[in-house]
C-alpha cells in the first residue's frame, strides 16, 4: 500500500524513434534490432548529472535481455525455421540503452534519444585482456581472435565507478551444438551438448555448430563492458575476469583504490570468483580507468568448515596451474577457468547467482539459488557452505573480508545468512530459518544505499506452487534488514514470471524492476511452437503475447 507501479519499457518497444511493437509478432529482425529485446534481466539507472548532482528524474536505463522464447518471438512460433527467424532471435538478445525522464509526474522513454542503442547477438565486440588474440579464440571468420560478433544470455550485471555497465554472459553453452559424437573435454566441462537448448541458430549461422567451429564457444562466457554514454563505442569482452557462466560482476573498491569484482558461476557445483585489479581507480579520469579490468588477479573461493575461507589465485605457473598439469598459459587458465578452479580445489556451490556488497562495512552476500542434486548419487554431498541435501529452496552465503577490505586476499570469515524455505516444513533439509515472509530460490540481490537488502526469487515454473513450493506463493521481491534478519515481501510478480533486476534513483523515490517471462508455461520447452501463456501481462486482458518489461515503482 502506498506505492504505485506501472510498465515503462517492454519487449518490442522501440529504443528510439524506430518501429512500434506489433502484438502479432510480425516485427522483422531489423525491427527487433532497434526495439527492446526479450526477457529483461539485470538493469541499472545511470543518472544524468544536472548541475553537480545526479538527477533522480532523468537518466539512462541499461537493461539485459537474457534469452528468447521463440514460441512467442515469431508469429508462428517455431513451426517454420528460417535465417530471418535466427536473425530476429539474435537481435532480441543483448543489452538495451534507453533514455528515461519524468514527464508530467510519470517516467517515460525519450524518443528519439541520442543515447538510445541496442547491443545484440551480432554486434561487433572487442576482446581485451590476457586471452585476447589467443589461438583458442581465433576462428574462420576472425583470424585475429580480437573481435566477436555479439553477446548472449546476459543475466546479471555490474556497474563500475567510472560509469560503465558490465553485461555478463551466462548460459552461452545452450546456443551451441556439437553432434560429432566426440565432445572435446573443454566443451563438455562448459555444458555443450549435441542438441543445445533448442535455439536452432546453428542451422542458419554455422558458427554455433561447435563441431565445425570448436573455438567459437571460447568467445562467449565473458564479462562485457558497455559504455552507455557513448552510443558509438565498441563494447569490450574483458578476459581477465575469466570465462564461465557469469551470473553477475559486482564491483567494489579496495581500501587502496584497486577495483574488485565479485562473480558467481551459476551452475550446480560451480564456484565463486573475485578479481582484484593491478591498477587503482582514479576518480574523474575515465580514460585511465578504462583498462583497469584488463590487468589483475582472478581468484576462486574455498569455504572451509571452520567458518574461514580462502581466495586462491588463478595464475599460470602457480600451484597446480602449470604446463605439466595441462595449463598452457595465462590465457588458457582464464579460458578454462572452471578447470583451473577444479585443480585448485575450490568449493562447489549450490548455483551462485547475484552478489551484493553492503554499503555499511562491505559484508558480501551471495545467493545460492538451489541445487536439487546436492547429495544425490555420484554427486557431491553437503558441506559447511552448502549444508542441505536436495537443496530445493536455496540459501544466502555471507562473508567478511579481512579488515572489511574488499581488496584483501587474506583468509575471510563466512556464515550462512539465510536458509530459505518454509519455516514450518517437516523436513529439516527444507525448513527455512527466515524471520518474516518466507521465500525460496533467491536469485537477484541488491543493497540500496541505505543498506537494505533486496532479494528477488526465481522459482522455476515447473515447481511453482507445487510440492515443496506449495506454501511459498509466487515469484516476488523482498526486503531484508541484515542486522535482524527480518524479511518482508515487497512485491509479487504476474503469473509465470521471475522478478529480476532492481535499482533506485539517488533520491530513493523511484525503483526500477524487471519482470521476466510473464506467462511462462510449464510446458514451454516441450511445446516451442506456441506455448499457451499463463498470463498476457502487461497488454492483457487475455490471449495476447505476454512481454517481459521494466516497471517503475
Ligand atoms: Fe540467468 Fe542464473 O540466472
Ligand atoms: Ca539470475
Ligand atoms: Ca534467473
Describe the 3D structure:
This protein is mainly beta and 553 residues long. The protein is 7% helix and 32% strand. It has helices at 29-32, 70-73, 83-91, 185-189, 286-289, 330-335, 337-344; strands spanning 6-10, 40-50, 53-65, 94-103, 106-109, 117-119, 124-128, 147-149, 154-159, 165-169, 223-226, 236-238, 250-253, 258-264, 268-270, 272-280, 296-303, 308-313, 349-350, 352-357, 364-368, 395-400, 412-419, 435-436, 442-447, 453-457, 476-480, 486-492, 498-504, 511-516, 549-552. The longest helix has 9 residues, at 83-91. The chain is globular and about 55 Å long. The protein starts with 5 loop residues before the first strand and ends with a strand.
The molecules bound to the chains, other than polymers, are:
MU-OXO-diiron, calcium ion
Tally of individual helices: 7
> How would you characterize the largest beta sheet?
9 strands, antiparallel
Q: Biggest sheet, strands in spatial order?
A: 13-14-16-17-18-23-22-21-20
Principal-axes geometry comes out as globular
What's the quick description here?
The chain has helices at residues 29-32, 70-73, 83-91, 185-189, 286-289, 330-335, 337-344; strands at 6-10, 40-50, 53-65, 94-103, 106-109, 117-119, 124-128, 147-149, 154-159, 165-169, 223-226, 236-238, 250-253, 258-264, 268-270, 272-280, 296-303, 308-313, 349-350, 352-357, 364-368, 395-400, 412-419, 435-436, 442-447, 453-457, 476-480, 486-492, 498-504, 511-516, 549-552.
